[in-house]
């Protein structure tokens, strides 16, 4: 894994005293730093660079998240009909990622292509507490939507605030989603079962080919094992599933690796998808990549996906591999509709709350009893 | 600036620094000059040695010389005006009298950069808006890349008035491949949208299969183009289907199977685009009860056929 080092830091004075800001500045005492209430000037100059995204990432902006600190996952607001969501909440603690994954949607998502860290941690914890006070059921909250949850953790120290906070909760789980092996901070805390560290996983050769600057397959597995030993639950996101010519063997091997070493809290599957802008961006930034030459078609929400029957084959196959190991492991599809759910998984969750409940219930029952029949009963209860 | 008749022999005709035109049709201009002479004086820069450099009016001078004129009316720009200012004047004069094509704009940008050492930042901020373009790195790169295209591709772009979003597709190909493609394009005419699709598909197939563009275009596609039993429209359809089968083999197989089963069921069945939904649709039209009953009969017959089960499995 390549560690992040900015060439310049910009600090919003309103978060100058934040422990997050102080941690970053302490890590990079020799990096030039500007205090400014405005958006960094470099934003106006980025269009002059041949790769504005790459240049933008050299600049770290520490500021306050003035928007909604907690929100529902973007999938729930998608224009795709019949999309099945998992009632996931997102805490935006950071924006952008120094890793260079070829398929990453962040490449075309923003007009602020800097590395942004939101340092108003007190307000975030307050917002979290407010949400939990008003929620009756168990929920999952993740930080890995607009950034990698842990890629900058050794610089920002965010996990040192989030993990203990969730350790004191009973009905909320924190999910830290990552492609890094930056787990040193995590090992200092007892998560008390409330934090799940989830690795985005692909076959090893795909990681080498498409996940530049990230931790290697082996590094991710090693980090996951250390986290498991420290009391964290482990989950995996096989997203994006990429249909390389040898995908069946590659994913079989991947599942063999993962499930012979771990008993994951959940697994998500999501076939590779991108919109037209992202495709252009990928071809421009990675001109010789074969990532976009699969059998992709336009789907109703404007995204390109493998055509439905092929996506179903991908999901059925990989889910089949998983079921051979652990039939009870909650496995869900990301950004997919009811037709694909039905044809791939054999059932459709009744609602997003039901899917969430299924995932979270598994976590609870998983520890209390490993009673397969009960889990199968629950599975039948929550799925139509 | 003074006005004079200048002997063509005193003009440096080989110095084309300020020339902007690309692929001009000189027929109309030549006829006009032949009949009425030069109505609009050219602009020349005095070089101080009794010789002159052309600032604007290359085409008029070329035509006049070809017609046997020995002198030409000209506005003379004095020696102290810099060559960059002359070039800017040339651009301005041309720009306000006609629309520049993409390659001409690209040529202006290239000359400013190479001949006048204008920095990329100044080019983007000052000269792109001057040429009616957005001041961005992306636009700058597109025009910079356009200059590097094979001259035959440039010619094709100008003659067919290709928009930037199609021009960009040519950048992905090497110069030899561009030449192969352009030779192929001489034999069949694409609309703008089908040309883009053609370029995208041949590029993606060659990238995926690690096959050469010339192998693809010279063998199977050339045979389609040379098939004299097909008219132009049919050739395009066959060519598109061949490429689609190659680019989307599994989806194409599915679609072909769907069409075959649909024909056997004798019903106007339609699936959603790319089968994204799992429903079949059917739109019937009838004018009277008898026609409706005929449809009902057809549906009854279809419901008993194994092809119905198969088509339902496909979707």
Q: Could you explain the architecture of this structure?
A:
- The complex is a heterodimer of chains A (384) and B (315).
- Chain A is an alpha/beta fold and 384 residues long.
- Chain A is built from 15 helices and 20 strands.
- In chain A, the strands form five sheets. Chain A has an eight-stranded mixed β-sheet, sandwiched between helices. Chain A has a five-stranded mixed β-sheet with strand order 2-1-3-9-7, with helices on one face. In chain A, strands 16-18-17 form a three-stranded antiparallel β-sheet.
- Chain A has one domain (8-382): Alpha-Beta Horseshoe (pyruvate-formate lyase- activating enzyme), CATH 3.80.30.
- In chain A, helix 10 runs parallel beside helix 12 and helix 14 (352-368) packs antiparallel against helix 15.
- Chain B is of the alpha/beta class.
- Chain B has four domains: 1-98, Alpha-Beta Complex (Conserved hypothetical protein from pyrococcus furiosus pfu- 392566-001, ParB domain); 99-148; 149-247, no CATH class; 259-314, no CATH class.
- Chain B has helices spanning 27-36, 58-66, 83-97, 102-114, 120-130, 137-147, 151-159, 164-170, 175-185, 192-209, 213-225, 232-247, 249-265, 289-303, 306-314; strands at 2-7, 11-12, 42-46, 52-56, 71-77, 269-271, 280-282.
- In chain B, the strands form two sheets. Chain B has a five-stranded mixed β-sheet. A two-stranded antiparallel ribbon of chain B has the order 6-7.
- In chain B, helix 13 (249-265) runs antiparallel to helix 15 (306-314).
- The longest helix of chain B has 18 residues, at 192-209.
- The mean pLDDT of chain B is 92.
- The chains are: A alpha/beta (384), B alpha/beta (315).
- At the A-B interface, helix 12 of A face helix 5, helix 6, helix 10 and helix 13 of B.
